[in-house]
Amino acid sequence: MYKLIIRPILFWFDPEDVHYFTFSLIRFLNKIPFVSNIVKKLYQVEDTSLEKELFGLTFKNPIGLAAGFDKDAKLFNELSNLGFGFIEIGTLTPKAQPGNPKKRLFRLKEDSAIINRMGFNNGGVEDAVKRLKTNKHVLIGGNIGKNKLTPNEDAGDDYKICFKALFDYVDYFVVNVSSPNTPNLRDLQDKEPLTNLLKELQIENAGHKQRKPILLKIAPDLTNEQLLDIIDIVAETKIDGIIATNTTILRDGLTSESKTEMGGLSGKPLTNRSTEVIRFLAEKSNKAFPIIGVGGIHTVEDALEKLEAGADLIQLYTGFIYEGPKLIKDINKALIKK
Prior knowledge:
- The structure is a single chain.
- The two termini are 27 Å apart.
- Helices cover 39% and strands 16% of the residues.
- The chain is an alpha/beta fold.
- It has one domain (2-337): Alpha-Beta Barrel (TIM Barrel).
- It is globular and about 50 Å long.
């Protein structure tokens, strides 16, 4: 029903407007008695074989919602009803910021892709914390970044502010230095500044009675040499894992009219490259750390390929928008059969 009726209607309208409309609709529908139970019965797949133990956490299934969809932690309880095993909120910054000027979100329907240049638009970390206090047992990842006007030499302060504010309300952290939509942010992926940043967060982490897992989200555009640096950085800083990958700035093989728009590209064009990065990291590190695979998962086969390449968990974003919540159910059912 989603692909035949709902998606064609939604795709007639501006993608950012549709996003906010959909959020309002989901929130409204879940206030109606019994609707959330009906949604759970339609899409949730419960089976102990789907459970995954990773960095001290128990994921009820290995399929998560990637950061960027529920930036401000406004809908994580309702979205979890669709069958996700975990929800990643953010990217959050210390101060609220509007992000880049509109129009900043583009569908590439012919390529089953999206280009976004949102620019970490969010209401600020403290605003999100207010809603996270209403969490009804959803496993939450907190994706954190820096404000646009914060120079890179002071970036560590921004990440630590977010880390401290979210610590009691998320289950794991994701350090986002790989978005192409904040000026100079990707410079923080260089070995020295990235090592220093992660060490600062680990010092902050060690100050708590029970530390929280810290993961690093990387770009798909890194060279093999840079990926080897990432492996070294994980070993040196002792962070808990990698999320591979964020959006790409490359535009190879696109046919859609909007292909020249600036921003990060996600969706099917990213499928192969994100899997290549996962496989490279898993093989070259001898599977020394967990990997969450994300990028171009539109089918059950895409999901299985990511897991076979070395991903321990996977996340959906653009595939969820194009294929609908049935994709989550189909992947979980396929994993049970395996």
